[in-house]
Amino acid sequence: MFGWVRQGFQRAYERMLRREIGDGPTHVAIIQDGNRRYAREQGDDAPDGHRAGAQTTERVLEWCEELGIEELTLYAFSTENFDRPDHEREPLFDLFESKLYEFAKAERVHESEVAIRAIGEVDMLPDRVQEAIDFAESETAEYDNFTLNIALAYGGRAELLGAARDVCRAVESGTLAPEDVDVDAVESRLSRQHVRDVDLIIRTGGDERTSNFLPWHANGNEAAVYFCAPYWPEFSRIDFLRGIRTYESREKSWQRTRTERAVALVRAVAEVELADAKAVAGRLRQQLPSSGAAEVSEELAKRSDESAD
């Protein structure tokens, strides 16, 4: 009885969230946290939690397609994760390997024209994972309808340091002039694959931090951030829609702020111009006959009324 009521409420709430969402973000990045904690609470081992999380990943891909999102980046394995014990790392590498091959062969991936890409220091990964990455990327290289970035052996600080070193080497060798070091020069050296600016970061598992994730693409774009309590295997469509709503609320607020600033700037400029015009008119009054001065005053009053409007 109560289960049926709860399901009905969830469906109604989901429909309400969907109605509140407009165009939505272009690029969503997700920190998939809580797999191991989920497994512990279920009385399972860490690899079981990661396998459950992989099922959530497949569902999120479907939700992105439904909402017209064009790019999804998943934080699957950080450079810090190499510090985990072998009995946790190896099953993860097995999972990455099998899922990459599975995704690359899936009919849905090819029907939807999904480009699978890996970002991060992939040369740190085991050979078998690197081979799976090469296979997935080559099988989907021609697609551009949707992009799935998988962050493997990824660290935002390391990414920025690598780009800075590449820029320094290019300047030192003479292939890049110092005055040509700009946003494009840095961005082209950030990742082995092109990544567009991030609009929304979602983190599951309850922690409220972005963990060194895509600092250039997210912070530089002032991405919205949505933190939620469910572990990644428990992450639901309602949670995802809440994240999208957070992005849209932030975007509307930012647009409203920009409009208010633009209006204030126009008014400030108009006030300065009006003050200058009054000063000029004052000087003209001293030099023109009384009839000419009256015409200047009339024109000035007319422009003052227009500025007020």
TrEMBL record:
<feature type="binding site">
    <location>
        <begin position="209"/>
        <end position="211"/>
    </location>
    <ligand>
        <name>substrate</name>
    </ligand>
</feature>
<feature type="region of interest" description="Disordered">
    <location>
        <begin position="287"/>
        <end position="309"/>
    </location>
</feature>
<feature type="active site" description="Proton acceptor">
    <location>
        <position position="81"/>
    </location>
</feature>
<dbReference type="InterPro" id="IPR036424">
    <property type="entry name" value="UPP_synth-like_sf"/>
</dbReference>
<feature type="binding site">
    <location>
        <position position="82"/>
    </location>
    <ligand>
        <name>substrate</name>
    </ligand>
</feature>
<dbReference type="GO" id="GO:0000287">
    <property type="term" value="F:magnesium ion binding"/>
</dbReference>
<keyword id="KW-0460">Magnesium</keyword>
<feature type="binding site">
    <location>
        <position position="203"/>
    </location>
    <ligand>
        <name>substrate</name>
    </ligand>
</feature>
<keyword id="KW-0479">Metal-binding</keyword>
<feature type="binding site">
    <location>
        <position position="222"/>
    </location>
    <ligand>
        <name>Mg(2+)</name>
    </ligand>
</feature>
<comment type="similarity">
    <text>Belongs to the UPP synthase family.</text>
</comment>
<dbReference type="Pfam" id="PF01255">
    <property type="entry name" value="Prenyltransf"/>
</dbReference>
<protein>
    <recommendedName>
        <fullName>Tritrans,polycis-undecaprenyl-diphosphate synthase (geranylgeranyl-diphosphate specific)</fullName>
        <ecNumber>2.5.1.89</ecNumber>
    </recommendedName>
</protein>
<feature type="binding site">
    <location>
        <position position="33"/>
    </location>
    <ligand>
        <name>Mg(2+)</name>
    </ligand>
</feature>
<feature type="active site">
    <location>
        <position position="33"/>
    </location>
</feature>
<feature type="compositionally biased region" description="Basic and acidic residues">
    <location>
        <begin position="299"/>
        <end position="309"/>
    </location>
</feature>
<feature type="binding site">
    <location>
        <begin position="78"/>
        <end position="80"/>
    </location>
    <ligand>
        <name>substrate</name>
    </ligand>
</feature>
<dbReference type="GO" id="GO:0004659">
    <property type="term" value="F:prenyltransferase activity"/>
</dbReference>
<feature type="binding site">
    <location>
        <begin position="34"/>
        <end position="37"/>
    </location>
    <ligand>
        <name>substrate</name>
    </ligand>
</feature>
<dbReference type="InterPro" id="IPR018520">
    <property type="entry name" value="UPP_synth-like_CS"/>
</dbReference>
<feature type="binding site">
    <location>
        <position position="84"/>
    </location>
    <ligand>
        <name>substrate</name>
    </ligand>
</feature>
<feature type="binding site">
    <location>
        <position position="50"/>
    </location>
    <ligand>
        <name>substrate</name>
    </ligand>
</feature>
<comment type="function">
    <text>Catalyzes the sequential condensation of isopentenyl diphosphate (IPP) with geranylgeranyl diphosphate (GGPP) to yield (2Z,6Z,10Z,14Z,18Z,22Z,26Z,30E,34E,38E)-undecaprenyl diphosphate (tritrans,heptacis-UPP). It is probably the precursor of glycosyl carrier lipids.</text>
</comment>
<dbReference type="InterPro" id="IPR001441">
    <property type="entry name" value="UPP_synth-like"/>
</dbReference>
<comment type="subunit">
    <text>Homodimer.</text>
</comment>
<keyword id="KW-0808">Transferase</keyword>
